[in-house]
Amino acid sequence: MSNLYARDGISTVQPPLSQAVGYIVVVLLGVIIALVMMLITKLLKQTTGEDNKKTEMFMTANRTVRTGLTASAVISSWLWSTSLLGSSFVGYNYGVAGPFWFAAGCSPMIVFFALLGISCKRKIPEAHTSLEVVRIRYGRTAQVVFMILCLVNNIFACANMLLGAAAVISAVTGIHIIAATFLLPVGVTIYTFVGGIKATFLTDYFHTAFILIIACYFSVKAFSIDQIGSVGHLFDLLQAAAQRHPVAGNQDGTYLTMTSKGGILFGILHTCSNFGLVIMDTSYFIKAFSASPAAVVPGYTIGGIAYFAIPWGLGTIMSSVAIGLENAPNFPTFPRRMTTSEVSNGLVLPYAAITIAGKGGAAAVLLITFMAVTSTLSAQVIAVSSILSFDVYREYFKKSATDRDLIRSSHFGVIFFAVFSAGFSTMLHYVGIDLGWTLYMLGVVTCPGIFPMVFTILWRRQSKAAAILSPILGLATGLAVWLGTAAHWGGEVSVATTGEILPCMYGTVASCFSPIVYSVLITLVRPQNFDWASFKKERLALEKLEDDLTTAHHDHPPSLNHSVAENSLEDGGARSAAFDAQELKRWGRIAAFWSVATFLGHWVLWPLPMYGSHYVFGKKFYIAWVVVAIIWLWGTMLVGIFYPLFDGGIQQISQIYRALKERRTVTNGTPQGQEKGDASASPSTPSAASVTETVQADEAKDEGKL
C-alpha cells in the first residue's frame, strides 16, 4: 500500500448500523433477489421460450442480447466494489488525479474489447469461451496454459472484490468480516445456478440501476449540507487540507493537480492490470458471445465510455468530502485522521457517506457495496463454471456431453467456485492482505496472457510455441521484477513491501509487455500462417445457431401471438444483415477506431498535458471539473437504466404481459386459435401447463423445419 502519510493507530469507529441490518442485507436481500431472478427465469421460459435447460440459453442467452442490455451489462461488469471503494481510496491518497486515472485505466480497455468481441463473432461464432478459441488454434497444451491464467485471473478478481466488500460491510454493521465473506456469494450462487448468463444480464441491469441512482444521490447530497454548500467551498476545504498535510509527490503538495507522481504511477499500473482483467476474464467473452453481432461494438463502446464517469465522478466527490471534512466533528474518525489500514480497506467512501448523510449514508453504501459485489461475482462465477463445463468436462471427460450433462457440470462449477473464492479471500485476510494490496498487485498475475491472447484472435502468424511459452515467461518475468524491486526498495519481501506502488507498477508492466517480445521472437523462428476458416470447421454449439441468430423467434413469445410471424420476418431480415461478412468487417473497423480514440482521449490527450504542465486547479476550473463529472455521471445513469428499456426491454415486457394474459384466458376457458398459425389452438381448453408444453413442442417443430 502507498504509505503517503504515517497514520498508525487502531480504528475505534463504532459501526453506525446494527448487525441485524447487515444480515438482513447480506442474507435476506440476497435470497430475495435470487428468488425474484428464479421467478423471472421461469416466466421467460413460459412466455418467450427461453429454456435454461438448454446449454446455449444457459451459457450464451441464445446469442441474441441487444445493445441496450449489453451496454448495461458492460457498465455492471466494471461496477466492482473495488471501483466504488478504490476510486475514493486513490482520490484520498493522490487528490483529483487518483479517480481520473482509475477511470482512465478502465474505459479504453472495455472499448478495445469490442474489437476482440466482433472478431470472435466473425471468425468463430459458435464459441462459448475464449479457451475454445485457443484449443482449436494451438491444441490442448496451450489451452491448459491459458486455462490456468484465466482461473488465476478470476480467483484474484473475486478476492479483490470480496476483501473490499467484506471490510466495508463489517465496518458499517459490525458483522464479522469472515461471515460477510462467506455469506456474500450465497444469493449469487442461487440465481446463477438457476438462471445462467441471462440471470446475470438481468441482475446486472437491476443492480446497475440501483447503484447509479445512489451514486447520483451522493453527487447531489454532498453539496446540500451546510459544511460544504457548494463546489466552490469544497475547493476551499481541499486547499486548507493540503496546508495541514501536503501530498508527497504532488505539485506544491496540493490535492488539486494532475501532476501527481503517485497518481500517474497508479494510472500506469491500473491500466495494465485492467487490460489483463478484461482480456483474461472469460466472462467478458461470454457476454460478447451472448450479444447479437450488431450489439457487440455499440454495446461495449457505449458501456465503456459511459462507465468512465462512475469512478471519476463518484471517486472525486467522495474522496474530496473525506479530505475536506476529516477534521470536522461529525467525521467518523474525529479527532484523528483515518489510519493507513482504514484507507487501504476501502473505508474512505463509507466514512464520507456517513459524514454527509449519517446512518442513511451508511445504509446506502452497504446496499451499493452488496449490489456491486454480487453482480460482478455472478459474472465471475458463470465464467469459471463455463470453463469447468466446456473446457474441462466436455473436452477431457465426456466429448459427447449432452445439454443435461453440461448444465450439471456448470451447476457444480457455480457452487465450487463460490465456496472456493470465499475460502481463498479468507486466507488472504488472515495473512494481512487487504483491498489496497490486491488492487496494486493484481496486474502481476493477470497481465501475462494479454498479448498472446490478443494475437491468437487478431494475428495469424503467432506460432504454437509462442502462444505456450510467452505467457509463462511473461509471468516469470513479472514475478521476478515485482519481488526483486520489493526487496530492493523495502529491504525484504513481505506483505508490506510487495504492496507498495513502485514494485507493483514495475512488476505489472513487466508481466504485461514482456510477452510481446517473447511472442514475436519465438514466432520469428517458425511463424504460423493460420487459416481463420479453420475455426468454423469444428462444431462447438449443441444447437444449430445460424437460424436461431438470424430469426427472432427467441425474442417473441412463440405461438402465443398471431403477429409473431410478421415480427420474425421483420427482425429476421434486420438481423441477417448483421451476419453479412462485409457488415462484420465494417463493425470491426468501427471498433478499431473507437478503441484508438478512447485511449487517446482518456489516457493521452486529456491527462498527459495536464501532468506535464504542472497545472494546479483554480476554483473555476475545479468547479467545471466536478460539474462535468456530475453531468457525465447522470448521463451514465440514464444510459444504464433507460437504454435497455427502449432497446427491446419495453417490447419484451409487453410480450410477456400479452402471453400471460392469453394463458389466463385459456385457463378461464375462452377458445383460442382463431387465427391461422396460432399454435395454441386446441379442440379443448388446455391448462396453463399444456400451453407451456405446446410452446416447447412448437419450438421443437420450428427447429425441425429450420
Describe the structure.
It is found in: Membrane. Belongs to the sodium:solute symporter (SSF) (TC 2.A.21) family. Residues 679-690 have a biased composition (Low complexity). With 706 residues, this protein is mainly alpha-helical. It has a domain at 19-30 and 62-443 and 590-645: Sodium/glucose cotransporter, CATH 1.20.1730.10. 75% of the residues lie in helices and 0% in strands. The chain has helices at residues 19-48, 55-60, 67-77, 81-94, 97-104, 107-123, 130-138, 140-173, 177-221, 231-244, 261-279, 282-290, 293-307, 309-325, 340-344, 348-397, 403-430, 435-446, 450-458, 464-490, 495-498, 501-525, 545-550, 564-578, 581-605, 607-612, 619-667, 688-705.
- Please state the structural category: mainly alpha
State the CATH class of the domain at 19-30 and 62-443 and 590-645. Mainly Alpha
- Residues in helices, as a percent range: over 70%
Mean pLDDT: 80
- Please mark out the parts with pLDDT under 50 across 5 or more consecutive residues, or reply none: 1-10, 58-62, 545-579, 671-706
Shape: globular
CATH superfamily of the domain at 19-30 and 62-443 and 590-645: Sodium/glucose cotransporter
Summarize the main sheet: none
Distance between the termini: 59 Å
Roughly what fraction of the amino acids lie in strands?
under 5%
